[in-house]
Amino acid sequence: MNKQPPPSTCVVPPSGSRVIRAFGDEITVHLGAAETGGKYTMFTGVTPPGGGPPQHYHQNEDEWFFVLEGRAEFFKDNVWAEVPVGTAVFTPRGVVHAFRNRGDKPLRMLIQTAPSGFETFFARCAEEFAKPGPLDMKRIIEISTEHGIHFVKA
After folding, report:
1. Residue 19 bridge partners (DSSP)
2. 154 burial class (0-12, 13-18, 19+ CB within 10 angstroms)?
3. Does the residue 5 lie in any domain?
4. How far apart are alpha carbons 76 and 34 in whole angstroms?
5. Residue 100 burial (CB < 10 Å; 0-12/13-18/19+)?
6. pTM attached to this predicted model
7. Which pLDDT tens digit goes with each residue over 79-134?
8. Domain containing 92 — which CATH number?
9. What range defines the domain where residue 50 resides?
10. Fewer C-beta within 10 Å: the chain N or C terminus?
């Protein structure tokens, strides 16, 4: 992770964003470590119907979400709750959380993490998903652990 401050205001046009696909999701990284000096990552996530990560927590990052389109459900305090478009959700590091697409259309959210690094985790997982043959879940768990992301058995 680059911890050097950016030299000045950073402007990233839509054509400068990086698209990464893994876990059935697509993220478009608008700002990452290189643009923010390692302070945070901002991306748009698109999750297909029925999709979403299992319950997990981050050791290294706080994470926040803003629901742009679709039907989102969040796992908070051991309960799933549907939230409307326009809802903001904050999850501090160490807190078990998850989200899922409850609808029949893609779910779009603006997601941010601080500090940056989530984009590296997702890109490394995308490399595993792109390999031919069955997905090596053991490797996905290893990458997750290396990035301080831990899955919780439901």
Report:
1. 28
2. exposed
3. no
4. 32
5. buried
6. 0.91
7. 999 999 999 999 999 999 999 999 999 999 999 999 999 999 999 999 999 999 99
8. 2.60.120.10
9. 14-148
10. C
